[in-house]
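QA checklist item 7 of 12: single-chain prediction sanity check.
[x] sequence parsed
[x] length recorded as 406
[x] structure emitted
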Amino acid sequence: MKRRELIKYLSVAPVAGAAIGTGVPLESIASTVGTAAKRDVIKELGLRVFINAAGTYTTMTASLMHHEVVDTIEAASKHFVMINEVQDKVGAKIAEMCHAESAMVTAGCWSALVLGTAGVLTRMDRKKVSLLPDLSTFEKTEVIVQKAHNVGYVHALTNTGMKVVEVETAEEMERAITNRTAMMWFLNSSGPMGKIKHEEFVAIGKKHNVPTMIDMAADVPPVENLWKYNDLGFDLVCVSGGKAICGPQSAGILMGKKDLIAAARLNAPPNGGNIGRGMKVNKEEILGMYVALDKYIHTDHDAEWKMWEARVANIVNSVQKVAGANAEVFVPPVANHTPAIKITWDSSKIKLTPREFLKELQDGSPSIEVMTSQDAINITVFMLKPGEDKIVAKRVQEVLAKAALS
């Protein structure tokens, strides 16, 4: 036996030896070499998994990626590519799909807000890029925000050093615009509460040549919102990637005017010495976001809505079997715009608080998450997997029946 053949023989001898007398073909043994059971890290770490009947909340890890997205992420992980080229190619595709001049994938919607604002402030001036958030030498340092929109998300803008100027009416907005005004910001989820509506807001911005940005993080469906605000004339549009679109949760989209997207990218990775260096998006997330968006846009949304309504009906019917319980179907006006259920009960017939209701659902098997209010629980069905509506319906009915006073 030659030396090379001997080494080859010895490398498989232990396996071959183990097979002798077992009746197991050597080919079968060889095919199992190097394979092992898949590691279940969720089980290993003792993490609680649950049915998501609450919605696309970040704290609950938002949504689940479709297998096409996961396959894309896995395939992309096997190759090296230049990150700027990935952004160029994917950005062009997203812009085409969403009626924008340009687009980029960001590290979530918050990152889109920060980078978009930074781009408005610096444009293509690398010196300004290096200074953020120090705006002491900048002429334009203010962002105009409606009072009803001035909530926690505005911190994404002030991260860049911007100062918020609060207004309530269109007349106040016109008066507030000065040579210090850099941008006007619209929070879409608060749109119904503000006095200045989309069209008037954009018109004022164009009249005074002030860029307008809209934050529509969780505001699909309807799918048309992905291009509606570009068509309306907003200069920058910011979207979450990991909610209804079911892309990577840590991804988002910034789209809008070509010059502003270019400036935003100057403030973003892989560039250094800027405010956005830490907001990295890897090639897997960028490509996964593209595939998720493409799938979402081409989904049969009418059929999807009917499916949601059927899920809602299952749960409502179960609730109404318990005396003293009531289920009201509603659709949120903007964010998470899907059929949902508000469950209330007569406390004289059912002894239960919303917090106790939630705890019963969380502690059950399988665990279920819902949202609570002062006197109700709210259930959202569009994050449920097939068949989970029946599980939720059964558990909700059981909890109500258990607490019913005889």
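[x] summary fact logged: The chain has two domains: 80-297, 301-403.
[ ] second reviewer sign-off
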